[in-house]
Amino acid sequence: MTDGVEFNPALLFTVIPQWRTQAAQMRSVSSSLGVTTTGGLPASTAGAAQTFLDMWHTTTRTAAVAADVYADELESTGTSYQNIDTEIARRMDAMGGGVR
Predict the structure, then answer these.
(1) Using CA atoms, how far apart are residues 37 and 28, in angstroms rounded to an integer?
(2) Domain region containing 19
């Protein structure tokens, strides 16, 4: 990597809520899928339909957890970077780095 890493804290105000919204949407879909029944379907298709519903219920539940984890990790990373910047500024001030 030749360009280094760039962190824009302003993006967190956009990205974290988007991940939280994604998580909420996945939880909602997961809840709906969890209570959906195969009643009314022919017996020959009910098993496959239930397998399909179960698979998507699990997938959306997993996606909701993942989206929440991404949001939490972005928040944690942002806090960490801000704390590091604050500490560096404090040390520079203590060494007279801000005085010219």
Answers:
(1) 16
(2) 11-29+55-93
Distance in angstroms (rounded) separating the CA atoms of residues 89 and 39: 65
Residue 15 falls within a domain, yes or no?
A: yes
pLDDT tens-place string over residues 20-53? 999 999 999 999 999 999 999 999 999 999 999 9
In a domain, 70, yes or no: yes
DSSP letter for 13, please.
H
Residues belonging to the chain: 100
Contact between residue 79 and residue 13 where contact means Cβ atoms under 8 Å apart: no
Domains: count for the chain = 1
Q: Encoding tokens for residue 51?
A: 């397998």
Any idea of the CA torsion for 60, 63, 67, 73, to the nearest 10 degrees?
A: 150
Tell me if 80 is assigned to some domain. Answer: yes
Q: Is residue 72 part of a domain?
A: yes
Task: For residue range 51-88, list pLDDT tens digits in order.
Answer: 999 999 999 999 999 999 999 999 999 999 989 989 99
List the alpha helices (DSSP H) in the chain. 9-35, 43-94
